[in-house]
UniProtKB/TrEMBL annotation:
Signal peptide as annotated in the record: none
Official protein name in the record: Enoyl-CoA hydratase domain-containing protein 3, mitochondrial
UniProt GO molecular function: hydro-lyase activity
Keyword Zinc-finger set for record: no
The species this protein was found in: Paracoccus shanxieyensis
Length: 265
């Protein structure tokens, strides 16, 4: 299925069990305006209720996402309160949208074809996996204009080592895709001309696994992060037991023992 409204801020293309969401505002570098946040949030809500197995977030144009819309920031300064209410609402909406990514039942892969800055880098860090084109740059560079990227920091500091995250936040420096891979922000770096194909190939590998196991596993993965070692084992033990008790898991194990493909369809 291809989104019929080609002017929509977020397009959706389905290929088999994989849904591809495409940020479609290249004129402003796919900035996370209020409208873009609302559109992406609504698309994620739809997918949460669907039987799709993997989600890809991609983008049109030169940039993956250049962060928040600075023109919206400046326009809000004309409000009676100097923009406080508008800013509080915007960041609450953005935080809620970002949190939908790890909460989504399906694994989410960022397909990064262009620069990802500030909240755009936050978007990449909030996805479960990321594939980037060679030469792509990442940064949380708000400090260069006097704005510390406090909210992007939340996702970034959970995706890469804290000292590396803090260095990026206080210097405003950019890193290339290879360095981003070294730090763990992206999983794979590929040639630009095969980015979509390589991202889809990764998605199809995941989509071929038992959907129930992937959904249970993703939920458990995010729940145990930040727990103590003992609490993490206490949390995941019941999950793997429930997984083992499933009939389709019994079929998967038996198929392995009999050296055949599992009958999951």
């Amino acid at each position: 299925m291809t989104d019929e409204n080609q002017d929509a801020l977020v397009l959706r293309q389905d290929q088999g069990h994989v849904a591809r969401l495409i940020l479609n505002s290249p004129a402003n570098y796919n900035a996370l305006s209020r409208a873009m946040i609302d559109s992406l949030s609504a698309a994620l809500d739809d997918l949460a209720q669907s039987d799709m197995r993997v989600v890809i977030i991609a983008a049109q144009g030169k940039a993956f996402c250049a962060g928040h819309d600075l023109r919206e920031f400046q326009a809000a300064r004309g409000d009676d309160d100097g923009g406080r209410a508008a800013y509080e609402t915007l960041f609450a909406q953005c935080a809620a949208m970002m949190q939908k990514l790890p909460a989504l039942p399906q694994p989410v892969i960022a397909e990064v074809q262009g620069i990802a800055t500030a909240a755009g880098c936050q978007l990449v860090a909030s996805c479960d996996l990321a594939v980037a084109a060679q030469g792509v740059r990442f940064g949380v560079n708000g400090v260069n204009i006097g704005l510390f990227c406090s909210t992007p920091m939340v996702a970034l500091s959970r995706a890469i080592p804290p000292r590396a995250a803090f260095e990026l936040l206080v210097t405003g420096d950019f890193i290339d895709a290879d360095r981003a891979q070294d730090l763990g922000l992206v999983n794979r770096v590929v040639a630009a001309d095969v980015l979509t194909a390589e991202t889809m190939a990764l998605a199809q590998i995941i989509a071929a696994k038992l959907p129930a196991a992937i959904r249970m596993g993703k939920r458990a993965f995010h729940q145990q992060q930040g727990m103590s070692l003992a609490d993490a084992y206490a949390s995941t033990g019941p999950v793997i037991c429930e997984n083992l008790l499933r009939a389709d898991t019994a079929e998967g194990i038996q198929a392995f023992l009999e050296k055949r493909k599992p009958d999951w369809d």
